[in-house]
């Protein structure tokens, strides 16, 4: 699907967009911790403590150690967008690593048709126990109504958005203004409800 964009480039572009999505939607951690357990939505992907590795470094690591195509990184982004819309799963620094891990594994299995021969290796790479990975995959699939198919036109929209998000020729003076414009573009393309 994304043969024109190398895997490393796809991974880096997706990582930047995922980080921006988290920053745009995240409730500050201090406020999250003050919320009572009754007002916080249950999120099976959320951990108690923030990981020490940034989402960009984490996605780079997945690109380095998993045998996955560039298309899978884009599909993972689409799946994350789906779960935040369909199941209202909140993106945060506490959940994004596990959400991205689950979405990339599902993309590998569905799109690249990869049968994971060594689940222990995958668990080591992603830093999540095998049994927990299975639970997260089932929860994710259930929350998106088992809809892994992505129309080619939707896939192309995401590819175009990723390329646009990296285009320096837009000549914005401030990075903040550029990111605001990109979020507006993403919304207008129907890519997210950020």
Main attributes of the structure:
9 helices, Cyclin A, domain 1, mainly alpha, globular, single chain, 61% helix, 194 residues
Please tell me about this protein's structure.
- The protein is mainly α.
- It has one domain: Cyclin A, domain 1 (Orthogonal Bundle), CATH 1.10.472.10.
- The protein is 61% helix and 0% strand.
- The protein is built from nine helices and no strands.
- It has helices at residues 7-25, 29-34, 55-65, 70-86, 96-110, 119-126, 130-143, 152-165, 175-188.
- Helix 1 (7-25) packs antiparallel against helix 3 (55-65) and helix 5 (96-110) crosses helix 7 (130-143).
- The chain is globular and about 40 Å long.
- The model is unreliable at 170-174 (pLDDT under 50).
Element pattern in H and E? HHHHHHHHH
Unreliable spans are 170-174
| Average of pLDDT | 79
N-C termini distance: 25 Å
Overall number of domains: 1
Number of strands: 0
Report the oligomer: single chain
CATH topology: Cyclin A, domain 1
CATH class: Mainly Alpha
CATH homologous superfamily assignment = Cyclin-like
Query: Helix content range of the residues, please?
Result: 55-70%
Q: How is the biggest beta sheet arranged?
A: none
Question: What is the count of DSSP helices, taking H or I runs of 4+ residues?
Answer: 9
User: Architecture, according to CATH?
Assistant: Orthogonal Bundle
